[in-house]
Design a protein that fits this description.
Layout lengths: L3 E3 L5 E3 L2 H4 L3 H14 L7 E5 L7 H7 L4 E6 L2 H10 L4 E4 L11 E7 L8 H10 L1 E12 L5 H11 L4 H4 L11 H8 L5 E13 L4 H7 L4 H4 L4 H15 L11 E13 L1
Parallel strand pairs: 3-4, 3-6, 4-5, 6-7
Antiparallel strand pairs: 1-2, 7-9, 8-9
The structure holds S-adenosylmethionine.
């Protein structure tokens, strides 16, 4: 149950909700931390941008039961899951690079999604412009480009029989530095708060860091490969990653995960 969602910078990625949700609790925590920081009492229109399987849309609906909560995503497989997970919300398939609100929105919430697109200077200005006056843009994105779990994907992709097939795979582009988001948003925001948190995700299971990446950042590298080569690539990546994320005596693998949070009010 996976199919490509293509962003304007050309990242075609298949999304499998069941693999993505494998570490659901760990992925949910920053989403709820972001939601807790949104200062909005009774918004009428809420958008969950890059809603994925709707696992967070449910919490938006719970927090604001009177709101029209609309989940936007580019993956039909994710949306199918979302419609079942959050029957009280509306969902629509769209690319968030070109998505335009039907009417000004009170809260645009986006967890772990916008980093799949480039062009953040244009995108973030555009999103703030979709808000009603006083509305809030709340964003959380992984800031992991330099971490071994991400950097080794590129290194391994470049060396091996799979290299020609992966030559054009860029993966999710690096997000900007926190100060760059400040410079983009400050001139047009009524208020702005930006912060980073490093979560120490405690993962269970074998090759847990690889399992984690298989649900997200590794997908653009796995998709273009035929089955046999995919297994070989995965084995090489697993070997490269293992020393950086050792399984501890108690069976846990610790994955330090840096995330950037942005809260802007129009
Ligand atoms: C890692 S999931 C995050 C899902 C959810 N927000 C959460 O917190 O669990 C990223 C989602 O962004 C979506 N996505 C990526 N690029 C997109 C684009 N250009 N337009 C719309 N959705 C996109 C994917 O389909 C995927 O469902």
């Amino acid at each position: 149950m996976s199919e490509p969602a293509k962003g304007p910078v050309g990242i075609a990625t298949s999304w499998d909700p069941s693999i993505y949700l494998r570490y659901g609790d760990e992925r949910l925590r920053p989403a709820l931390d972001l939601l807790a920081k949104v200062d909005a009492d009774a918004p009428a229109r809420v958008v969950d941008l890059g809603c994925g399987p709707g696992n967070v849309s449910v919490f938006l609906q719970q927090r604001w039961p009177g709101a029209d909560v609309l989940g936007i995503d580019g993956s039909a497989a994710m949306l199918e899951k979302a419609r079942r997970a959050a029957p009280g919300c509306r969902f629509a398939e769209a690319d968030f690079g070109t998505w335009t609100a039907e009417a000004p929105v009170d809260v645009i919430y986006s967890n772990a999604a916008l980093h799949w697109l480039g062009g953040h200077d244009v995108l973030f200005r555009r999103l703030l412009g979709q808000l009603a006056p006083g509305g809030t843009l709340a964003v959380q994105m992984p800031a992991m480009h330099a971490a071994p779990i991400r950097a080794l994907q590129h290194e391994v992709a470049a060396t091996g029989p799979w290299a020609p097939l992966l030559a054009d795979v860029g993966g999710a582009p690096p997000i900007l530095e926190p100060g760059q988001y400040w410079d983009i948003l400050k001139p047009i925001a009524a208020s702005l708060d930006i912060w980073e948190t490093i979560y120490l995700h405690a993962l269970s299971g074998e090759n847990a860091a690889v399992q984690w990446a298989s649900g997200t950042s590794l997908r653009p590298f796995l998709d273009p490969l035929p089955e046999g080569l995919r297994a070989e690539f995965l084995a090489a990546y697993t070997e490269a990653v293992a020393p950086h994320y050792p399984r501890r005596a108690d069976g846990t693998t610790l994955l330090p995960f840096r995330r950037l949070f942005i809260m802007a009010r129009r």
